[in-house]
Structures are given as structure tokens and as C-alpha cells.
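Incident review: delayed structure delivery

Summary: a single-chain prediction request sat in the queue longer than the usual turnaround. Root cause was a stuck worker, restarted by the on-call engineer. No data loss occurred. The affected request and its eventual output are reproduced below so the record is complete for anyone auditing the incident later.

Affected input:
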Amino acid sequence: MKTIVRKEVYNTDPEKVFHYLDDLGITGMHMTQSSAMMMGSKLHLEYLTENHTGPGTKYRWTGAMMGMRMDFTVEVTKWIEGVEKAWETIGEAKMIIYSWYRMNLLLIKNVNETVAELSITYEKPKGWFLRILSFLFANWYCSWCLKNMLADAKKTLEINYKSKIKYMKLLPFKLGISLGFAFCIGFLVCNIVFLIGGHGFSLSIMNQIFHETDFKPLMTNEGFSFGKLLCGMGILFLAGAFIGWVTAFIYNLGKKRAN
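Output delivered after worker restart:
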């Protein structure tokens, strides 16, 4: 028997990594799709148990490679969610470069990362021709399988993570407070500009919005009106907070319905 081991680091917790590496729809893609390593062929996956995950799960691979038939059944012999999984071929296995194999997945949490150790142990087939093929290609093919399984899981994890970031939930309270402060500070800065420039300072749009229309000039005959400044900042803060809260609420509601 010979064992090939490969490791991969994931920037997430072991439970998520285990979920993706336990999914044959992800880790079995390299066998269900045509490729150079599969000699242009692909295998068909058939579950033999109602459960598709967990201890005792059985499934069958069938197909052909280089004109030779492949037909073997695999059973999950160990399954500890988020920690470890082991599966191996059972019964008579018609394979090319080995007669039996067992795979083992072990996850180790390391601070904010998860180290996945995936290994395959195999026995050489019988017959001189198949033994020669095994000698030439077994280690190479095993390394290719391990690499693809770990890489496909990592790629799917990253795609789903980016998707969540793109459509992440908005927090109404935080968005409202942030927008309120933005309005408030904007009003303060504009009026500082007017204070320095004097009452005759002309920026038509700013003057229209912050002086003549809403709060009247801060520069009065008696001097600078600090009370009006605070009043304007307060009103715009509340307006910004309300707009931010409503915006976040509508966004989250639409996203929930879309999902």
C-alpha cells in the first residue's frame, strides 16, 4: 500500500470547509467532467443510499477509461462533522491503476484558518499490464485528484463568500447613524464656508439649500446664530438617520424576497 497526502489552508472555520469537502457535487467534479487526466472520459455517480452524507453513505462510480470498464462502490466509514471523514472502496472494484483505495480527510483549526489534510491510500491492481500502468500513473493521478478536490472546494467557498459580501445585509441603525452624521457634518462645513466668506458669499446651490430655503441665514444682524447652527445640524441628522434606516429596510426586504 502507498499513501499520498496533500494539504490546503482555508480562511474560514472547519465546519464550512467540511461542508464543501463532504459534497461530492464539488469534490467529485474532476471525475464527472472530461479532462486530459481522465483521457477524455468521465464517470457517472450513483448514490446507493437515501442519505448523501454521513456515516454509512454508499455510492457507485461507473464508466470507462481508455476502453476499459470502471465500476466500483465506495462507503463512508468514518464521519465526524467538522473534523474528520474516511471513505473506501468495498466489494469487487473494477479500476485501472489500483484495486482498492481509502481516502481520509482531517481538519485542523489554526487561529482564523483551517488546515485540511487529504490523503489517499491505495493497493496496486493485479496483472502485469495494470501494474505497469499503476507504476507509471498511480501517484501522478492521486496527486491530481487530491489537488482538484481541495482546489474545487476552495474555489466554491470563495465564490460563495464574494456573493455574500456583494449582497450583504445592511444594518438599518448603523446606516441611519452614518448618513445622519454625514448630513450633519455637511451642513456644518457649508456654514463654516459661509461664515468665513460672509453673508454676501455666493454659491447659489449651497446658499439655496442651506440658507434661504431651509434654515435662513446663520449670519444675522446681531451676529452669528449658534442656536440656528445646532438646530440645522440636529434636523439634518434626524433626516439622514431616517432616510438611512428606511433605505436599509427596503433593501433587506427586497433581498429577502429575491432569495
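Verification: The CA atoms of residues 174 and 245 lie 8 Å apart.
Action items: add queue-age alerting; document worker restart procedure.
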